[in-house]
Design goal:
Blueprint lengths: L10 E8 L3 H12 L5 E4 L8 H4 L31 H14 L6 E2 L4 E7 L4 E6 L2 E10 L21 E4 L13 E5 L5 H8 L5 E6 L5 E2 L8 H9 L1 H23 L6 H14 L3 H6 L12 E2 L3 H5 L4 E5 L2 E5 L2 E4 L4 E3 L2 E4 L14 E2 L6 H4 L18 E3 L12 H22 L3 E5 L1 H15 L3 H4 L21 H7 L8 E5 L14
The site of flavin-adenine dinucleotide has 33 residues, from helix 1.
Keywords: FAD, Flavoprotein, Monooxygenase, NADP, Oxidoreductase
Protein name: Baeyer-Villiger monooxygenase
Family: Belongs to the FAD-binding monooxygenase family.
């Protein structure tokens, strides 16, 4: 960095939070609640919201009910639907930003391009597209699903039409009457297909693997219910508790007794049979792996959309593009004016990992070349005072990620309290043995889960087939595991006495 001792004023903050989605905003609120105001939130985009700013595709909505998919400390009695849409979730996050006084901390258009641990100064040197700064602690909340992935399809660059990813929807491109190819059948695609099928001239769905789909019990939350939640907030809490409790019980089948999921498979098959009468199409849409192995999708209009006369389902996935002709793995060809990729994100190969340089001069990506791993989903060995939100093995297959984020915020708050209690310039570095022990326990529990035994390949698994994304337990277990920082799991680093660094602090 360009610091010359005592001459160049650079900014130093106690905490730099990266990202302003649920994770980064939650961290910011928690920091303020802990009495910490010397922090910034670095965000590459021009507004808050993360997932809910970037995914604006038609039909975009949460698939965990809104009263659970929201912060426990910021209940919203006004959720309009059981599964609210992107616009409302984004507005909720803007509201949280205002109500909790986060605006002054936000730095938009500050994409973090590199951060490196300065072992002498016990601080992080952070470079962004809008300048550099240093921080005692980094909270990396860049999101597991924030960098879209477009597969390397031979010939794609020769396609003369429009190409975009579901998370970067081009609202200026009118799909009316167009020949549209939708690639992928994940959570985004099954919301997009029913929304655009009535508009498109022809819609070809390139399906590599059919998902399991259950009905979505979505309805408007009535004005009476909303008034009740407003007048008696305990009713909204109760509603949340019921939604949480049901999922907490369900997860046992995913983690310990995958065989019990056969009953759910029967429900899903009935759902399919009710909507799709054509046996050939039904066969193409019937999964051959255990339900739950990939994310179970909720939709009541996906299957009906696939029976429309202007919709084709091509099994085998998109294999090649020859000009405007798209060729599937089974040889089927389709002409298209536009290709929409609903092909997910860089999850197990996080781009941010390439940009974080640890104490030994190697990047996090290099440390994670054999798979992502972190102590309690938060701390990586050799990366002192660096903590990630929704880190390795913190994802959920059936419940709200906000529960996991809030658990990680408890851990963050305790971590900062320990740093304070230790006094002076100090840092905590996860001990490799503690990281190993935690990951051994996680992977041991993973062996029985449906994600590892269900007979599918999914984005939960990395290139070597290891599940580095999902938490193999209940959210209560994770909450317990992250309630307190166990100092024995960390090495305490102290700045060499007597002097640290002659820097000028201009923190907020
Ligand atoms: C379409 C969709 C629907 C979903 N629905 C649900 C649901 O119903 N229930 C559920 O539990 N989960 C759902 N998820 C998962 C969802 O991603 C999480 O619930 C949650 O929103 C993640 O929050 P986050 O803050 O960790 O990440 P994000 O919301 O992705 O935010 C990360 C932020 O970091 C910023 N950033 C990234 N890199 C940098 C950088 N280098 N420098 C600066 N800023 C950077 C990004 O711009 C972004 O604003 C869904 C995901 C998607 C994509």
């Amino acid at each position: 960095m360009g610091e010359q001792h005592g001459k160049v004023r650079h900014e130093h903050v106690r905490v730099a939070v990266i990202g302003s989605g649920f994770g980064g905003l939650g961290a910011a609120v928690r920091l303020r609640r802990e009495g910490i105001t010397d922090f910034v939130v670095l965000e590459r985009a021009g507004s808050v919201g993360g997932t809910w700013r970037d995914n604006s595709y038609p039909g975009c909505a949460c698939d965990v009910p809104s009263h659970l998919y929201s912060f426990s400390f910021a209940p919203n009695p006004e959720w309009p639907r059981t599964f609210s849409g992107q616009r409302h979730i984004r507005a909720y996050l803007e509201h949280v930003t205002d109500v909790f006084g986060i605006r002054p901390h936000l730095r938009f258009h500050h994409e973090v391009t590199r951060m490196a641990w300065d072992a002498a100064g016990l601080r992080w040197e952070i470079e962004t597209t809008a300048g550099s700064l240093t921080a005692d602690v980094v909270v990396s909340a860049t999101g597991p699903l924030s960098d879209p992935k477009i597969p390397d399809i031979p010939g794609l660059s020769s396609f003369p039409g429009k190409v975009f990813h579901s998370a970067r929807w081009d609202h200026d491109y009118d799909l009316t009457g167009k020949r549209v190819a939708m690639v992928g059948t994940g959570a985004s695609a099954i919301q997009i297909v029913p929304s655009i099928a009535p508009k498109a001239g022809r819609l070809t769905l390139f399906q590599r693997t059919p998902p399991w789909v259950l009905p979505r019990v979505d309805r408007a939350i009535t004005p009476a219910e909303r008034a009740l939640h407003r007048a008696l907030p305990v009713t909204a809490k109760l509603r949340r508790a019921v939604l949480w409790g049901i999922r907490e019980v369900q997860v046992q089948a995913f983690t310990k007794h995958p065989d019990e999921l056969g009953l759910v498979e029967r429900l899903a098959k009935r759902h399919l049979a009710r909507a799709v009468k054509d046996p050939a199409l039904r066969a193409r849409l019937t999964p051959d792996y255990r339900i739950g192995c990939k994310r179970i999708l909720l939709s009541s209009d996906y299957y009906p959309a696939l029976t429309r006369p202007n919709v084709d389902v091509v099994a085998g996935g998109l294999a090649e593009v020859r000009g405007s002709t798209l060729v599937a793995a089974d040889g089927t060809e389709a002409e298209a004016d536009a290709i929409i990729f609903g092909t997910g994100f860089h999850v197990t190969d996080l781009p941010i990992a390439e940009r974080v340089v640890g104490a030994d001069g190697r990047t996090l990506a290099e440390h994670w070349k054999d798979g992502m791993r972190a102590l309690r989903g938060a701390s990586a060995a050799g990366f002192p005072n660096w903590m990630t939100i929704i880190g390795p093995n913190t994802g959920l297959g059936n419940s709200s990620m906000i529960l996991m984020i809030e658990s990680q915020l408890n851990y963050l708050a305790d971590y900062l309290r320990h740093l304070d209690a230790l006094g002076g310039r100090v840092a905590l570095d996860a001990r490799p043995a503690a990281v190993d022990a935690w990951n051994r326990r996680v992977q041991e529990r993973m062996r029985r889960t449906v994600w590892n035994t269900g007979g599918c390949t999914s984005w939960y698994l990395d290139a070597s087939g290891r599940n580095t994304t999902i938490w193999p337990g209940t959210t209560t277990e994770f909450r317990r595991a992250t309630r307190h920082v166990d100092l024995a799991e960390y090495e305490i680093l102290r700045a060499p006495a007597p002097h640290t660094a002659d820097r000028v602090e201009v923190g907020a």
